[in-house]
Amino acid sequence: MDMRRFVIRKTIYLVITLFAILATNFFLFRVMPGDPVSAFITKGLTEEAREDLMESFHLNDSLPSQFYHYIIDVFHLDFGVTYSYVARQEVTSVIAPRLFNTFTLMILGTTIAIIAGIWLGRFVAWRRGQAADAIGMMFTLTFYTMPTFILALALVMLFGGRLDWFPLAGAHGELPFYDNPPAYSDMNLFEKIVSRLYHLILPSMAFAIQWMADFVLIMRNSLTDVLTEDYIVTARAKGLSDEAILKDHAMRNALLPVVTVIAITIGWVVGGEIMVELIFSFEGIGQLTWDAVDKRDFPLLQALFLIIAIGVLIANLIADMVYTYLDPRVKI
User: Within 13 Å and on the Cβ side, how many CA atoms surround 295?
Assistant: First the structure.
């Protein structure tokens, strides 16, 4: 199978899966008990006002009609208006700034986790059975088994509380380098970038340490298995250096399961690390999802779940492409 047919086939599967997600995303919220309009919007309003709101949200239409309008609106990137926010804000206007915050957290945290995790996993795998392996695995297993909220709270108490080095909440805010720090809206572009990076340090540390432990374990186990293969023994017999064996023979095959974990990680964190974002009051998709579930904001939840699902699909598609580069047998 050539690469073009492989990509076309994967794209068709993605479209079918996306349609199934759209259907599930729509009907899931329709079978939930209760009337969100009655519960959250129409307290104290007249029956006429309630009917007007039901009509504006298409809640009086039949399910097939609602599903048709939903599909059309999604392809026009129109997710409607929120139930729970004041002034009936557009869902996209509520999500957009939160999505940007989550992406910055995801990019920084995931990059650190991938680079550090692969390097440390390679380091301890090559020294399996030695003191470096034992010490490295002790620290890795400690963070791997530690709940995310415990790690995040520890960072808050140490670096944000006792040492007071970093801010405890928010995705941006005032900088500590000024006697009279300007408000975020009054900062120039450079100051805004520094402000965001400054507020990203603690949540990205909590995020990166947790996922780095996963990458270390996967990389170590995968590389350990690869190093026992016959072609590695042959490479040693040829007199190749350790660096050449690792770089040219072992790492490429050992990275295959790591690519899978990276794809799952990226797809998962598009939805935000809810615990991390809640503890650090980080205005991202995770915190927004929590608030939307708490308020049963159906349009907002539908849009959030769709974004998360698309993130998972795209991450898996990219993983498939990377797989074909690392191992051409995959497309066969």
Answer: 18
